[in-house]
Amino acid sequence: MRSALAASSLAAAIAWAPAPAAAINKTPYPEVRVEVPAEAKAEPALEAMRKQLAHAISRRNAGLLYELVGPNFFWNANGEPSEQFDKKRDALHNFKVAFGFRQFGHNSDSQNPENQLWETLEDIVSDPTLFQMQGSPGVLCGPASAESIDDNAMDQAIERVENGDEDSEWFYSLGEVTLTERPGGGGAVETVSKLAMPVAATEPPTRALGNNPLPTHYQLLLPSGKTGWVDVRAVEPLAVDKLCYGKQPDGGWKIVGYEHNS
């Protein structure tokens, strides 16, 4: 599982466009401890379906992709029903809107490929790990990623560090990782594990406007209020998009949900 998570971390580092360092307050905050839910094993029928899904995505075959969407589909954004989820419309309509194949409020599909979130789907299916969705027997979601053990601590920490309307980006490592005084070296600031921390800065630095180079190191804010640097490949993003799968009456598996996290 760690190798898959490491691969997804690198993909996330490439895709993620970090906000300027001023987005967070460098202040002490409650510790945010994390854990990864127990990994679930996919039965052969689900493995076969996910191979079809990966094939459809790699070929940009929207028709085949749509065939894999179940008759029921939920769409959550940061743990709450998405504001664009339309309960009056069918599952396929909401799936298309969620992934940019149809614009919100429209009845016809979008013809602009730039709106279609194929890369997001690729990132999701590139990691084979799955876990049982809490409170929904028979529904498996993936990829498996860490979650905060104490949601209250997470909420309080976010409230302390976020500055205005700017969202904070949080990363973690299950194994021990040492934060250093400078990107790639310097004295050790602290060694932590299973702890989520927000990004305070990146190396190279990010700018509010213009094209930014891919970051090689993150400066993370420790609960004490100290900061330290870490290689982007040593940590995982706490916010990870997930697809959920449900077994149908005929024994086959379909996509039944999308968990968007930002």
What can you see in these coordinates?
With 262 residues, this protein is an alpha+beta fold. It is built from six helices and 15 strands. The chain has helices at 2-15, 44-58, 62-67, 91-98, 118-125, 151-161; strands at 34-35, 69-77, 80-81, 131-132, 139-142, 147-148, 170-172, 177-182, 185-192, 197-203, 217-221, 227-231, 236-237, 242-247, 253-260. A hairpin with a 6-residue loop joins strand 4 and strand 5. Helix 2 packs antiparallel against helix 5 (118-125). The model is unreliable at 1-22 (pLDDT under 50).
Attribute tags:
globular; disordered N terminus; six-stranded mixed beta sheet; 262 residues; 27% strand
What is shown here, in short?
With 262 residues, the protein is an alpha+beta fold. The chain contains six helices and 15 strands.
By secondary-structure content and strand pairing, the structural class works out as alpha+beta
The SSE order reads: HEHHEEHHEEEHEEEEEEEEE
Q: Low-confidence parts, pLDDT < 50 over ≥5 residues?
A: 1-22
Helix count equals 6
Cα-atom radius of gyration: 19 Å
| First-residue to last-residue Cα separation | 22 Å
